[in-house]
Amino acid sequence: MPKNLKGKDIADIIPDKCIGCQICIGECPTKAIEMVGGVAKIDPELCIGCGKCVDVCPANCILFEKPRKKKAAVAQKPALAEYKGVAVFVETHDGRAADVSWELMGKARELAEKLGVQVLGFLPGVSTEAIAKEAIAYGCDVVYVMDNPLLKMYLPKVYGKALVQLCNEVKPEIVLIGATPLGRDVSSVVATIIETGLTADCTGLDIDKEQRLLMMTRPTFGGNIMATILCRNHRPQMSTVRPMVMKMPKKDPARRGEIRMVEFEGYTDPLPSIIDFIPRASDVGEVDIARVPVLVVIGKGACNSQYFPMLEGLAHLLGGTVACSRPVVQAGFLPYVRQVGQTGKTVAPKLYIGVAVSGAVQHLVGMQGSERIIAINTDRHAPMMQIADYPIIGDYAQVVPQLIEGIKARVPTLKAGSAKL
Amino acid sequence: MHIVCCIKQVPDTTQVKIDPETNTLIRSGVESICNPYDVVAVEAAVKLVEKYSGKITVITMGPPQADSALRECLSIGATDAVLLSDRAFAGADTLATSHTLASAVKKLSETEPVDLIICGKQAIDGDTAQTGPGVATRLGYNQFTYVSEILKVDAAKNTITVRREIEGGCQVIEGSLPALLSVELELGAPRYATLPELVRSLRQEVKVWGAKELGVPAETLGLKGSPTSVKQIFAPAPRKGGAPFDAAANKEQAVQGFLDTIFKNDSAILAEVLKSENKG
Predict the structure, then answer these.
(1) How many domains does chain B have?
(2) pLDDT digits (tens, 9 = 90+) for B118-177
(3) Same structural domain for residues B146 and B272?
(4) What ipTM describes this predicted complex?
(5) Is the sign of the CA dihedral A242, A103, A337, B182 positive or negative?
(6) For A165-271, where are the E strands, in sequence order?
């Protein structure tokens, strides 16, 4: 145990374990901690050995052994106990619900059962009756419907106000929102107005039963580290989850539930006007690669227009499409919407087929949720080959034709399907 | 036009890794960079100022070292820079961060009213995309996230028109200023700093504001003002690869061997995939 010149037992930080979150700096009452070279460092002469930094360090990187009185368990504030139920924001587009909302309904069911509460649906929009019924079929107990012409098109201020109103009136303890462009946009508006905690892009959600807290796990530092986050003293606990992270629950049309109408308070301030909407056509350039079950992903080493029809043929044979890594977009070979990875799209297809994709970290974080990974590469040491379930060492120009023939031979019914190419 | 760019200095996340043996962070050689989305935001602001005239103030919340990220922005055309640095800001989540940034924008507006805030759509270390909308909400500004093109600024009507990339397509939307834009990389690559600009960026004074300058109570900032807290961190379960099929040696044998294995081990996945194909 180190002591300072005054003979006080002091805390010490293990630099290798420090993640540079700076939480200890905010907690230290004597301003003894500073960031030095990306890690926290304690000034031994300023440290008073109070151990506050040890309590808050998420990485357990502070050495301090002085016996301390255990903090009395903080009783949940009575105001927090008023909040009950797991709510899901049901996102709609053109009278259809986003799949991610139903995926979250399945997760909400699981969390609600652990807490012994109901699953609630928050459904702002217009003519939403069919969607409300669908919400019940997917596991919702009570759907709160806010039907108002102002909610026809999404605008952050209006939808933000609608959801804040629902949160204040219904008081759910948890609100789950799909991490779609719309969901990410509105969730932050709501959390800021209510002044509660919001955790983005969670990949794991669970309940700490003892404390009745939502444990939100998300990747951070570009997916290299996982962090579990809590929102202890504010309600609702809000979380967004990307599409295709949670499992789609089974739809049960016979399920019973309740639909309650809520009157929207309205919005009177001037609003932006949507001038135009240009839908992305589903041709080669413009398809949502995050929603396709099979992706043939082209890497820098396969950036060759001669072989592109062959790779596209493989994708179509399996009912999929082509995507790519960042260098392929930079080379102007494929458009940005096709890019997988940190600055592109996160995908989790059933089958990911990487063709000469080396597997830079930025790419891996965008596809490591894939169910099965096949990699074709001449370099057996490429990172992608280390994580692939099926690494094939070889030149794709040779391997892929073999692969196409082999698949056709095994599944004769596919021949008709591939004829459309 | 007075444009504020909110930027963040981030570790080059591609270099941060966990040592699988010791479960500790390997950070030797990890550089700090200006968040790539934010550099695009500054470039967008520079283009607007070139077209409509005005000035750009770039602000960041961070430790004293974040000064270098601000200077990088000055070198590519920002006019002024303010570093928001105080122990009271440390340990902030997105709610507390948006509070600090919004307070700084309010303070800037006292002397020169702010017309537009531009920031990157997200930072590459946290990837939350929450701070921008948080700042807009606190200030009551119109927010336009995922902007891929700035189409028009109408000074007479005091409006801005942008194109946004959203679910299923892109949206052209017009709203009144002041507004906040969060921008996509597609908006355009930043320019290279010229030598005179580089020299200016190094010589120019960067103001430093703390909680006192912002006039905000410390309990609403940093760790104390953050509803969320990190409970623990851990390395993601590594994906373990399978045995390789060596097509370099014998391509027919390797491909057949691969197909035999996948059709045997993953018949369920293949059946599902091929079924969805037959439907289409």
Answers:
(1) 2
(2) 999 998 887 889 999 999 999 999 999 999 999 999 999 999 999 998 887 899 999 999
(3) no
(4) 0.86
(5) negative
(6) 174-178, 198-199, 204-208, 213-220, 225-231, 237-241, 258-261
Torsions phi, psi for A261 (to 5 deg) = -90, 135
CATH code of domain A79-261: 3.40.50.620
Q: Tell me which chain A residues have a C-beta less than 8 angstroms from the C-beta of B136.
A: 156, 189
Domain that holds residue B263: 242-280
Tell me where in chain A the CATH 3.40.50.620 domain(s) lie.
79-261
Are B216 and B248 members of one domain?
no
pLDDT at B19: 59
| Within a domain: B233 | no
Residue B50 is assigned to a structural domain of this protein = yes
Confidence class for position B221, pLDDT limits 50, 70, 90? very high
Give the C-alpha separation, A411 to A420, whole Å.
16
Q: Identify whether B16 is part of a domain.
A: yes
| Residue range A289-419, CATH number | 3.40.50.1220
A406 contacts on B by Cβ (under 8 Å): 255-256, 259
Distance between alpha carbon A360 and the CA centroid of its chain, in Å?
Answer: 20
Q: Return the closest-CA partner of residue A356 out of A320, A404, A322, A405.
A: A322
Pair (B70, B159) in one structural domain? yes
Contact A197 B226 (CB under 8 A): yes
DSSP state of A249: P
- Region of residue B208 (phi > 0: left; psi between -120 and 50: alpha; otherwise: beta): beta
Residue B274, pLDDT score: 79
Nearest to B235 among A225, A343, A391 (CB): A225
DSSP per-residue letters across A91-153: -EETTEE-HHHHHHHHHHHHHHHHHT--EEEEEEESS-HHHHHHHHHTT-SEEEEEE-GGGSS
Chain A positions touching B161 (Cβ under 8 A) are: 275
Q: Is residue B115, in this structure, part of any structural domain at all?
A: yes
- What CATH number did the domain enclosing B48 receive? 3.40.50.620
Pairing state between β B207-209 and B80-84: parallel
| Nearest-CB residue to A19 (from B229, B233, B259) | B233
B261 vs A: CB within 8 A: yes
